[in-house]
Amino acid sequence: MTIHQNLIGGTWTGSNAIENINPSDTSDIVGLYARADAADVQAAIAAAKAAFPAWSRSGILERHAILRKASDEIMARKEELGRLLSREEGKTLAEGIGETIRAGQIFDFFAGECLRLAGETIPSVRPNIGVEITREAVGVVGIITPWNFPIAIPAWKIAPALAYGNTVVFKPAELVPGCAWAIVDILHRAGLPAGVLNLVMGKGSVVGQAMLDSPDVNAMTFTGSTGTGKRVAMASIEHNRKYQLEMGGKNPFVVLDDADLNVAVEASLNSAFFSTGQRCTASSRLIVTEGIHDRFVAALTERMKSVVVDNALKAGTQIGPVVDASQLAQDMDYVEIGKREGAKLVFGGERLNRETEGFYLQPALFTEATNQMRISREEIFGPVASVIRVKDYEEALAVANDTPFGLSSGIATTSLKHATHFKRNAEAGMVMVNLPTAGVDFHVPFGGRKGSSFGPREQGRYAAEFFTTVKTQYTLAG
Ligand code: NDP
């Protein structure tokens, strides 16, 4: 098997490799991927630093053309890349292809943004002076991504970084180097000058940490766990660098008595269990008012019985495996914790055997949960959800907001009054009415508040806040 190497200063390099394993079939090796060390990271940062002056002043048409070309290739190869994604991460083929299309759309969007960079001209408060406000690239951007969206999250960080004239050192999660390597290869062949985009694969504690420790990384964008996010923050403060964090969630989905039962059940099923519950926007707290509680639990449980959990690449599979053995162990631990805490396991939670050896888990639903239980407070990051029974809308809103996180928040209701009130009062970065808490557009801001996020929003035009820095210029008119 050939080794997929790191890209440093425009050269593919590295011989120390590890196997990328398919979580749907552990006998299937997706490929061999190089592991960088701290010296490789220093070289990548030096290459990005050297490439920055020319790239940041490059013509907007050049950047536009490269990002467009990358988008076109991703779209043209969506089936193949979607299959690679499903093979290395375990989400279903339909989800893998959908995520790949999303990446293509993101590169297309930011190709357009290259041509729409604008500043402002404002009169000075002093006579005969003009004021211009312009946006400039920040410098070398460090990008650290998690395993659960192997192509979309790298895309939504790399595309704006390059569009606004930054150079990049990119470290993907070690579990999913395949999609990361593929998009770096596509961008490299699309014509990026040497050093503008560098790929350093490998362990977070080695590669990620070396990025955090470097004074030459001017901005750091991170998506992952709260614990690692804190490390990124501390190191960035130390180096006086800009940073942006997207971390966990414990997203609530409220179901009111007046909800359309079908809408509520389908949105809950999707939010809690699709993509194996491995989405930061997944809903693991289903907060249900007492008038609809029993009908909702009965209908959701019935619906869960028909969901097909199997090999991600198999036709008909609706939920793929958990990403790896340690995540599966963590999910199953939480099922035990929920039982011990006194919640009632009404469906699932057991390991499943399928034709191929993989990390299959039957989605689990608890009832009789309280918002104080660990299963209601800590992010599980798997297909495990619990129903919390509440008296009325007011209690539902209070419980929804009673969490250290604040990424996404949803409600199922036919009441305009409650929907409007919820949109205004949910303590979250994104609010959904009669829609799953997961599933967002690529051209509008993404992000949360409280313990979920820090710094400017990602995606859409709001991405410019992080990937550029503002300059205010004064000129005497003469
Ligand atoms: P981690 O925080 O463990 O990993 C995220 C990235 O950080 C990986 O690339 C990892 O490398 C790297 N990393 C690990 N240790 C260090 C370090 N010391 N210094 C620098 N980088 C490091 O999270 P997971 O990838 O395991 O993802 C799961 C978690 O991420 C969940 O809690 C989930 O909620 C959250 N998440 C949040 C999202 C959001 O948008 N809010 C989206 C997706 C996930 P390696 O993989 O090699 O260990």
Automatic annotation (TrEMBL):
<dbReference type="InterPro" id="IPR016161">
    <property type="entry name" value="Ald_DH/histidinol_DH"/>
</dbReference>
<keyword id="KW-0479">Metal-binding</keyword>
<dbReference type="InterPro" id="IPR015590">
    <property type="entry name" value="Aldehyde_DH_dom"/>
</dbReference>
<keyword id="KW-0558">Oxidation</keyword>
<feature type="active site">
    <location>
        <position position="246"/>
    </location>
</feature>
<comment type="similarity">
    <text>Belongs to the aldehyde dehydrogenase family.</text>
</comment>
<dbReference type="GO" id="GO:0046872">
    <property type="term" value="F:metal ion binding"/>
</dbReference>
<dbReference type="InterPro" id="IPR016160">
    <property type="entry name" value="Ald_DH_CS_CYS"/>
</dbReference>
<keyword id="KW-0560">Oxidoreductase</keyword>
<dbReference type="InterPro" id="IPR016162">
    <property type="entry name" value="Ald_DH_N"/>
</dbReference>
<keyword id="KW-0521">NADP</keyword>
<feature type="domain" description="Aldehyde dehydrogenase">
    <location>
        <begin position="15"/>
        <end position="472"/>
    </location>
</feature>
<dbReference type="GO" id="GO:0004029">
    <property type="term" value="F:aldehyde dehydrogenase (NAD+) activity"/>
</dbReference>
<keyword id="KW-0630">Potassium</keyword>
<dbReference type="InterPro" id="IPR029510">
    <property type="entry name" value="Ald_DH_CS_GLU"/>
</dbReference>
<dbReference type="Pfam" id="PF00171">
    <property type="entry name" value="Aldedh"/>
</dbReference>
<dbReference type="InterPro" id="IPR016163">
    <property type="entry name" value="Ald_DH_C"/>
</dbReference>
<protein>
    <submittedName>
        <fullName>Aldehyde dehydrogenase (NAD+)</fullName>
        <ecNumber>1.2.1.3</ecNumber>
    </submittedName>
</protein>
